Amino acid sequence: MKLVVVNGSPRGRKSNSDKIIEWPLSEMKVNEDFIYEKIYVTDLAERVKQLETLKSADYVLVIFPLYTDSMPGITKDFFEYMERNKGLLFEKPISFIIHSGFPEACQSRDVMRYTEYFSKLLGMKYMGSIIMGGSEALSAAPESMFRKKIEAFKSIGRSIY
Questions:
Q1: pLDDT, tens digit, for every residue of 58-96?
Q2: Residue 136: how many CB atoms within 10 A of its CB?
Q3: Rounded to whole angstroms, how far apart are CA atoms 99 and 84?
Q4: Comparing 31-45, 120-134, 140-154, which segment has the lowest mean pLDDT?
Q5: For residue range 41-64, what is the model confidence (pLDDT) as tens digits?
Q6: C-beta of residue 107 within 8 angstroms of C-beta of residue 65
Q7: Torsion of CA 40, 135, 59, 36, to 10 degrees
Q8: Contact assessment for residue 134 and residue 16, using Cβ atoms and an 8 Å cutoff
């Protein structure tokens, strides 16, 4: 199985999205039967290659932060690129992780509903979304403050494969 992780953060490789996604990835049993590849929406020059990577995926996982009650513009741009090529991703399973600085999930629910709509628009299999609050503190607070969240995400990683 090949998992493709799409990092939708404008901060790219230095983002909280990259920190968060490492929690479940660190627990997945990567071997010849299971591999993963990350792509970053900030790599604008790589769009054609990114589409090829998505086409080769058995499962797509998209992670992005909530910015002003919406997804970042660069993430929306990537979604629009995917939509223009939607026939190539038909029936692929897709899940989302939406995180924000808000401690509660209610601000992310509209975007979560959009991810379900978007998945269906592309003809992909929507497998669900996870909302994580309080993520902005990741860049300043010690990891020990996030012990429960880290363990929850690691548990997800262990259950995937």
A1: 999 999 999 877 899 999 999 999 999 888 899 999 999
A2: 15
A3: 26
A4: 140-154
A5: 999 999 999 999 999 999 999 999
A6: no
A7: 60
A8: no
Q: Are 2 and 36 in contact (CB under 8 A)?
A: yes
Is 123 in contact with 94 (CB distance < 8 Å)? no
Show me where the domains of the chain are located: 2-160
Overall pTM > 0.85: yes
R_g of the chain computed on alpha carbons: 15
Structure confidence at residue 132 (pLDDT): 83
With contact defined as beta carbons under 8 Å apart, do 41 and 6 qualify?
Answer: yes
CA pair distance 127, 9, nearest whole angstrom: 21
Instruction: Print the SS3 string covering 83-151.
Output: HHCHHHHCCCEEEEEEECCCCCCHHHHHHHHHHHHHHHHHCCEEEEEEEECCHHHHHCCCHHHHHHHHH
- Asked whether the beta carbons of 41 and 77 are under 8 A apart, the reply is yes
Over residues 6-20, mean pLDDT: 90
- Please determine, looking at this structure, whether the domain spanning 2-160 carries the CATH number 3.30.70.1170: no
